[in-house]
Amino acid sequence: MTEYALGYEGGWEENETSKNAQGGTETTKRKLQAELPRELLSHFQIVPSRVRGLQNEKIRIYHAHDNVNDPETEFFKNKNDIDKFHKIVFSSNWQYQQYQNFYGLPYNSKNVVIDTWIIPAPHDVLNNKPKNQINLFYASTPQRGLEVLVPVFEKLAEKYNDIHLHVHSSFLIYGWKEMDEKYEPLYEKIRNHPQMTYHGFMSHSEVMNAVNNYHILAFPSIWLETSCRVLMEAMSAGCLCVHPNLGALPDTSGGLTWMFPGDVTNLNQHAQNFYETLDMAIQKTKAEIDQGYVSFNLQQAKDYADVRFGFETIKQRWLVLLENLLKAHPTVETRAGATVPNFYYSVGPK
């Protein structure tokens, strides 16, 4: 919470849910809040997924992070409520399409997509991976697929004695310690396995330093992600990423990862599909360590993630958006009605 400068007037809001959280949504908004010009942000109220009251004197932006089935999104049923915002920013193209399909949101310039940002991993990260052991990792809250991953890995560990799973997973990232109790037996199973390590909650910077030493992202998600920061960061860190073709994951990956057919209607089949793909990923990683088998593809995925999601790219897109909105609504009097401004939204450099 103290990593970014907060507390000045304008920009991204905190609410009762986010104030104690350190998840992707909170990390995203806090660094942007700290890095964008304060005077510019002072003209804006940016609401991250939770509408708790609007300020008529500000230019109002709704920054969507939730799925359409979240109760917090129900205000999209009322056109008058939507019209109170000057802009709606979605976190992925898949998420935007879901809101269009579910709520009948029109295709117009009031709605834009700006990806989540990452800090790219070092350029030589691929050359510095450990050679004596293949490190797999999972870095998300447990309900997203950890219960699928653990038995699959147990089976693979019977086949390979040189693989190790690192689990960075806890609801403490949102300040919800009590929700970890349900998963304590699963955490204990991980702790007791010689080829698994349960790291629990670690700061974002600590996890990212660890990811640079990992080879494979093992992410059998059963959650419809609206965006996926761990996937972006794993690609940047030169990891071979194994995940299903669900939600925003294909959009995020750009088709440069190892996707398997997700099956949330039959978790046994989902797990089997994951097992087969992860097994092949381990084999190819072994070949990579011995022969440089897949390094070109991993470098391609890293370059893609660094360019598309790099912080400077995303910061520039927000800066262009905010400056154009301010030109369209320069005074308090021009901000009462949230009409669509007549300007071309540029996504390139200024």
Task: Spell out the key features of this protein.
single chain; alpha/beta; Rossmann fold; six-stranded parallel β-sheet; five-stranded parallel β-sheet; 13% strand; elongated
How are the SSEs ordered, and which strands pair?
Blueprint (H helix, E strand, L loop, with lengths): L10 E2 L11 H12 L2 H4 L2 E5 L10 E5 L15 H4 L4 E4 L2 H11 L7 E3 L20 E6 L6 H14 L3 E6 L15 H8 L4 E3 L5 H8 L4 E3 L10 H8 L3 E5 L4 H5 L4 E3 L6 H25 L3 H15 L1 H18 L22
Parallel strand pairs: 1-2, 2-3, 3-4, 4-5, 6-7, 6-9, 7-8, 9-10, 10-11
Helix pairs in contact: 5-10, 8-11
Polypeptide structure, described:
This protein has helices spanning 24-35, 38-41, 79-82, 93-103, 146-159, 184-191, 204-211, 229-236, 249-253, 267-291, 295-309, 311-328, and strands spanning 11-12, 44-48, 59-63, 87-90, 111-113, 134-139, 163-168, 196-198, 216-218, 240-244, 258-260. With 350 residues, it is of the alpha/beta class. The longest helix has 25 residues, at 267-291. The protein starts with 10 loop residues before the first strand and ends in a 22-residue tail after the last helix. Mean pLDDT is 89; it is low at 1-8 and 340-350.
Question: Nutshell version of this structure?
Answer:
The protein is an alpha/beta fold and 350 residues long. The chain has helices spanning 24-35, 38-41, 79-82, 93-103, 146-159, 184-191, 204-211, 229-236, 249-253, 267-291, 295-309, 311-328; strands at 11-12, 44-48, 59-63, 87-90, 111-113, 134-139, 163-168, 196-198, 216-218, 240-244, 258-260.
